[in-house]
Amino acid sequence: MHQFTNDYSEGACPEVLQALVQTNAEQTPGYTTDAYCARAARLVLDACGLAAEEADVRFVVGGTAANVISLCGLLDRPYDAVVCTRDGHVNTHETGALESCGHKVLATDDADGFLSVEKVDEIVRANAAFGNHMTRPRALYVSDTTELGGVYDARRLEALAAYAHDHDMRLFVDGARIAPALLSPANDLTLPRIARLADAMYLGGTKNGLLFGEAVVIRDPQLRQDFPWLMKQHQNLLAKGRLLGVQFEAALTGGAPGTADEAPYWRCARTADETAARLGQGLIDLGFEATAPVSSNQLFFRVSPAVATALVRDLGCEVFFDEGATRVVRFVTSWATTAADVDEALAYAAELRRTTGA
After folding, report:
1. Domain 265-356: which topology?
2. pTM of the full predicted structure?
C-alpha cells in the first residue's frame, strides 16, 4: 500500500524531472554561479516580495544545512545560543549539528509545537540573571509548519519577531514545509509577510516536489556577507550547483497560489494539504482520535500499541510519542499522494478498527 512515512519518499514532480533531463547535457559554471540559479533566485525573491537590494537567495542541499549555516551566521559570538521549542528540529532531529558548531540550543517547554513569547522571555531572563556564566540567547528558531503539524498565524509570528528585534535578537524561520503552511486553511500569513518578519528563512524544496534543495532568503546584512563562506565551510557549496537552480526555476515558474497557471511548487503543496484533509477527516469519521486539528500535511493520531504496530507495518506511519498505554503516530501526505491512496488507507483503517475493536 501507499506509505505515509514522509513527504520526500518519492522523487520529484514531473516539471522538475523534465527540466533536469532537458538541461542534463548543458555545461554551466559550478557552485550555484550559473544562470539557472540566478533566475531561480529572482523567482524566489519575487515570491517573497523582495527586491535584490533587500535580500540574497542562496541554495543549499538540505534542511539541516539551511538551519545550521543560517544560525551560525545569525549567532554573533561563540557564546550565543538559539531558542526553540523542545520539539524544534535543531533540538531533536539534527544530531546536535548546531551544537557541534559550539552554539547551545535552549529549548522552551512549549508543549504544542509553537514557540511562545512568554516561554522565550523566561529563558532570556533566566540566562541574563547569571550574566557571563550563561549563554546569551541571540536568535529564535521557528518551523512553519511546526514539527507537530501546526501552522503559525500572524499574531504568533509577529509577536515573536517584535520580541526578537526588541531584544537585539534575530528570527529564523525553518521553511522545510512552508508551502503546505501557506496553503493551509489555518494560515493568515503571506510569504512576503513572513520574509519581512524573519531575518533569514528558507523555502523548502526537498519536502515539496524537488529531488533535493532549499532556497535560503537572507535579509540580515551580516549574514548576507558571510553566507557564501559559511556554505563552503559547512560542506554545502555544491559543485553541480545548477541542479538546485534548475529545480527551483522549474518549480516556481508559473502563477501565484490559486491562479489558473499555478506554479508546480504551489500545486505540490495544495495536493499534500488536500489529501491530508481527506485522510484526517476520514480517520476522525472512523473514530480515530486526532491529537490536534489537521491543518497541514502532517497528521497525528493517538492509538493503541497494537494499532500503532499495524499502522507502522502497513502504512509506514511513525510513532512520535510513546505514552505508555497509547502511542501517537504520524501520517504524512505529499505532492504525490492521490485520493485513491487516501481511500485505500481509510479502507485499511476501517478494517483495522473492525478487527481490533480499537
Report:
1. Aspartate Aminotransferase, domain 1 (3.90.1150)
2. 0.97
Tell me which amino acid residue 237 is: L
Q: Which residues contact 332 (CB under 8 A, 6 or more apart)?
A: 4, 5, 6, 7, 297, 298, 299
Could you read off the pLDDT of 271-330 as tens digits, one per residue? Answer: 999 999 999 999 999 999 999 999 999 999 999 999 999 999 999 999 999 999 999 999
How far are the Cα atoms of 127, 159, 267 from residue 253, in angstroms, in the given order?
A: 46, 33, 11
CA distances from 282 to 288, 343, 346, 348, 356 (A): 9, 9, 6, 11, 18
Domain with CATH 3.90.1150.10 in the chain: 265-356
Under DSSP, the state recorded for 256 is -
CATH 3.40.640.10 maps onto the chain at 14-252
Grid coordinates given for 35: 544562470
Q: What is the CATH number of domain 14-252?
A: 3.40.640.10
Please choose, from the candidates 133, 134, 153, 132, the residue with its C-alpha nearest in 3D space to the C-alpha of residue 144.
153
Q: Supply φ then ψ for residue 248, to 5 degrees.
A: -70, -35
Q: Are 94 and 85 in contact (CB under 8 A)?
A: no
pLDDT for 184-232, tens place per residue? 999 999 999 999 999 999 999 999 999 999 999 999 999 999 999 999 9
